Amino acid sequence: MQQRWPDRIWIVRHGESAGNVARDAADAAGHTHIDIAERDVDVPLSPLGERQAAAVGRWFSEMPASARPDVVLTSPYRRAVSTARLIRAAGGVAEPLLDEVADERLREKESGILDRLTREGITRLHPDQAEFRRLLGKFYHRPPGGESWCDVILRLRSALDTVSLHYGGRRVLVVGHQVVVLCLRYLIEGMTEDEILGIDREGDVANCAVTEYAFDPHRGSSGKLVLKQYNFVTPLTRAGAPVTAEPDATGAAR
After folding, report:
1. Looking at the chain, which terminus has fewer C-beta neighbours within 10 angstroms, N or C?
2. CATH number, domain at 132?
3. Residue 244: inside a domain
4. Which chain regions cross the lipid bilayer (predicted)?
5. Residue 119 belongs to what domain range?
6. Rounded to the nearest 10 degrees, how much is the dihedral formed by the CA atoms of 183, 144, 17, 214?
């Protein structure tokens, strides 16, 4: 039987962004809005985020060439694309790459009318949405014009189907966002709502943290991906790059 899954999948959250920094400042000041000028898709990495991405790239570069990623799939958002490019520039991928694709299905969760609002802003300006979220939970709550976690999972199911169709036996690097990391875990590991939200409550996914899966042909009837590490930040600490774990700036209720 032909292997459907990659030999390895690494899922990396983008480096710290200017939006992460702006959100921290807005929260600390008790503001209702996060002060960023660009569209969310255009928010760049911060200087620290660039250091984090380069550090992860150097960590990948220490692997034998035959073990490095030979496929790169990234969110089309600037902070994710820049992270992937810096990883590649540091020698962190196999050359030549089999494929390098910006896939819109890996984009950040859309916050709709809650975009650019802090938690304080949501409570003050949209108390009805704060209450809906409390009643429904973040897994199912969809703000007007935005997405729930379930909506993100729906598009990620399609993205994983593409991975299994085209990249069986390959080594795939996925660069995305915090919710993408968590929702891919939900899908790959067949979790329940309670299980993935329990992991989410334990803490944010660090910027440029690595989540890694390896294919085990002896699991199940046709093999499966097995989690090797989650929220792995040793590449950053070894390089002296500070670890950050700020939620993104698209709304307090990710």
Report:
1. N
2. 3.40.50.1240
3. no
4. none
5. 8-238
6. 10
Q: What is the dihedral of CA 149, 26, 237, 191, to 10 degrees?
A: -10
Residue 248: per-residue pLDDT: 72
Helix (H/G/I), strand (E/B), else coil: 209: coil
Annotated binding site for substrate: 79
Strand order in the sheet with 171-176: 99-102, 71-74, 171-176, 8-13, 210-216, 224-232
Smallest CA-to-CA distance from 228 within 215, 238, 217, 239 is with 215
b/e string for 196-230 if b means 16 or more Cβ within 10 A?
Answer: bbebbeeebbbbbbbbbbebeeeeeeeebbeeeeb
Asked if 181 and 13 count as a contact pair (C-beta separation under 8 A), the reply is: yes
Determine, yes or no, domain membership for 3.
Answer: no
Global pTM exceeds 0.70: yes
User: Binding site: which residues?
Assistant: 79
Write down the pLDDT at residue 163. Answer: 97
Over the stretch 49-80, which tens digit does the pLDDT of each residue have?
999 999 999 999 999 999 999 999 999 999 99
Task: Summarize the confidence of residues 220-242 as an average pLDDT.
Answer: 93
